[in-house]
Design goal:
Blueprint lengths: L7 H11 L7 H9 L7 H13 L4 E3 L7 E3 L7 E4 L5 E3 L8 H8 L10 E4 L2 H6 L1
Parallel strand pairs: 3-5
Antiparallel strand pairs: 1-2, 3-4
Helix pairs in contact: 1-2, 1-3, 2-3
Bound molecules: zinc ion and manganese (II) ion (MN).
The site of manganese (II) ion has 6 residues, from loops.
């Protein structure tokens, strides 16, 4: 398979994403990338984020929100969203590999993937309340 060479834009976007744990919005990524490529447009950011997602290099998170948040880690992992500060954190727990088969066994559906989101208060917000 031919390896596509990353365009400079895509490379910078990927670097910005891989260097943060914050699961940022496209707007935040845009502000960071502009420091290196001042004339880049928000449309170009979105186009490249979609391409990176289609190629399996990043993850996209929605959490029932109207805007997406992006994750430089394409591996399946679980997230926790704080209901107070709205920060999204990685959960260092193993992905449940058995749940797909369990649902397939117990229902008419052939399950090949799942998504689980956890909600509550992060340690910082627990201290405040
Ligand atoms: Zn919080
Ligand atoms: Mn993540």
């Amino acid at each position: 398979m031919v390896k596509h060479r990353l365009s400079k834009q895509r490379k910078v976007i990927l670097e910005v994403l891989r260097n943060t744990k914050a699961h940022p919005t496209a707007d935040w990524i845009y502000e960071q990338v502009k420091k290196e490529i001042p004339n880049i447009s928000l449309g170009t950011i979105y186009r490249n984020l979609n391409l990176l997602y289609e190629r399996g290099e990043i993850s996209v998170l929605n959490f029932g929100s109207s805007y997406s948040r992006f994750d430089g880690n394409p591996e399946h992992h679980y997230h926790f969203k704080c209901k107070n500060c709205e920060n999204i954190f990685d959960l260092d727990i193993p992905v449940n590999e058995n749940i797909n088969q369990a649902i397939t066994d117990k229902t008419p559906y052939l399950v090949d993937s799942h998504r689980i989101e956890f909600y509550g208060l992060c340690p910082q917000c627990q201290k405040k309340s």
